[in-house]
Write a structure and sequence with these properties.
Elements lengths: L2 H51 E2 L2 E2 L1 H9 L9 E5 L5 E4 L10 H10 L1 E6 L2 E10 L2 E9 L2 H48 L18 H49 L5 H31 L9 E4 H6 L1 H8 L5 E6 L10 E4 L1 H18 L4 E8 L3 E8 L31 H11 L3 E7 L3 E9 L2
Helix pairs in contact: 1-4, 5-6, 6-10, 8-9, 9-10
């Protein structure tokens, strides 16, 4: 069932139940009020009869008969019974009818002075009336014809009103539900036209400040993110394919040329050295792609623990020597000595942090003329600060904002082996650890990468 139909249905049901409850209450209280009013009227009638027939200390039934034949009777199907305290019937307006009143009823009226009851034929009231030394029991029964007719009319009116109101509620509910769902229907129509090719060029219309407008704004933001992700993925696949194809093509062409004829021992050694270099290049690229894929994962998918950043950096020298063919020089120093080891301890993933600093220090050594890197450690109120400096070529100002993009290589990096993945991996790792990474490059100071990581 569509949402607009559900809204209309729930609205109609809830409103109808409220109307039915009000109608039932109105009918119930009207019925109760009719009964109380008619019982009071019968009691007044019974006392009036008793007051009329007692005169001068005697019960004058003849006067009651005379009044009964003229104007005294004004109730529908009225029955009047008058008894003395000994339960002898003094008067009855019933003719040709055997009158039987249970003795227990007369005892009850005599003892309690008042009796009222509802029977199938109508209401009945009995009173024990005393005036002077004379007492009588008067029982009056009648059927409230006009009261029940009014109740029946009220019931019919309420029923017609309920049916009419429900019909109107159905129409009104559907109208308002359709009106409320129009923005969502438009949103659905616009979303249906969006695909991977026009994601960045298409946005849903946002009007107003309600929840639907918020949904549309959030949807536009999601489209922007997805579009950027798709573009990044396309660029990544294209660049990765190009980077993988280059060393493979070099290896294949060298092997084909070499196998075309017999070669000397020195030529075979040169070939194997070149193929080995291309294979190492291909291995570095594969490792870089794997690290980049891992850095795209969420923080929840890594095991985090307390990591001493200073100890981690101390191990970088050995790792750099294993990675580079020429030994690099790494100078590590503290700007100020920490009084507490927690000031240089980060809650993070040790393997990712090793990749982060290994890439940064390796880059610094590769681009430095003397294969050296200067690393400084400092700490502040919330962050550990690690700066990696080298005196290599200056990064042009127009390329500073692009160095963290995957596969991007600046003009000064074309002569150096690499694939442009290291810095993008570093940025992802820093983001996973809720940190920041920046780069500055000047002729006087050289190139400096600054990493901020929150400490414990």
């Amino acid at each position: 069932m569509k949402i607009k139909y559900k809204i209309a249905l729930y609205y109609t049901l809830s409103a109808s139940l409220m109307l039915i409850a009000f109608a039932v209450l109105a009918y119930y209280f009207s019925s109760k009020s009719r009964r109380a009013e008619y019982m009071e009227r019968l009691e007044y009638r019974a006392r009036s009869i008793a007051n009329v027939i007692i005169e001068d200390g005697h019960v004058k039934v003849d006067l009651l008969r005379k009044l009964d034949r003229t104007t005294f009777q004004d109730l529908y199907k009225e029955t009047i019974l008058v008894y003395n305290p000994e339960y002898d019937l003094l008067y009855s307006n019933l003719k040709d009818t055997t009158i039987r009143t249970h003795r227990s009823l007369l005892d009850y009226i005599k003892q309690n002075k008042l009796y009222s009851n509802i029977k199938n034929s109508g209401e009945q009231v009995g009173v024990f009336y005393t005036e002077g030394d004379v007492s009588v029991i008067v029982i009056v029964s009648s059927f409230d014809k006009y009261g029940f007719q009014n109740l029946q009319n009220l019931r019919q009116i309420l029923l017609i009103e309920l049916i009419t109101a429900v019909a109107i509620l159905v129409g009104v509910g559907y109208f308002f539900a359709r009106k409320m769902m129009q923005p969502i229907d438009k949103l659905v129509q616009q979303v249906d036209k969006i695909n991977a090719s026009n994601m960045l060029d298409t946005q849903v219309a946002v009007k107003g400040k309600d929840e639907i407008a918020t949904l549309g704004a959030n949807f536009n933001t999601m489209l922007q993110r997805l579009g950027n992700s798709f573009d990044l993925q396309k660029s990544f696949v294209s660049n990765a394919s190009h980077e993988l194809r280059t060393p493979l093509a070099a290896i294949i062409s060298q092997l084909q040329v070499t196998l075309s004829k017999e070669r000397t021992k020195e030529e075979y050694q040169a070939l194997l050295t070149s193929v080995l270099e291309d294979a190492e290049n291909l291995s570095d690229l594969s490792n870089g792609l794997l690290q980049l894929a891992q850095s795209e994962l969420n923080q929840e998918q890594f095991v985090f623990d307390n990591v001493r950043i200073d100890e981690l950096l101390m191990d970088m020298a050995n790792l750099i020597r294993l990675k580079q063919k020429t030994p690099g020089k790494i100078d590590i120093q503290f700007i100020k000595v920490p009084e507490n080891e927690l000031l240089v301890t980060c809650f993070g993933n040790e393997s990712l942090l090793k990749v982060l600093f290994l890439n940064l220090i390796d880059n610094a050594c590769k681009f430095s003329p003397d294969s050296s890197a200067h690393v400084s450690i400092d700490f502040f109120t919330q962050y550990i600060t690690v700066q990696i400096k080298n005196q290599g070529p200056v990064i042009p100002s127009g390329e500073i904002n692009k160095v963290f993009e995957p596969f991007y290589r600046g003009e000064n990096a074309h002569q150096t082996r690499g694939h442009g993945l290291g810095l993008s991996i570093c940025k992802k790792i820093v983001q996973i650890h809720n940190g920041h990474i920046t780069v500055t490059s000047t002729v006087e100071e050289g190139t400096t990468f600054t990493v901020l990581l929150p400490h414990l």
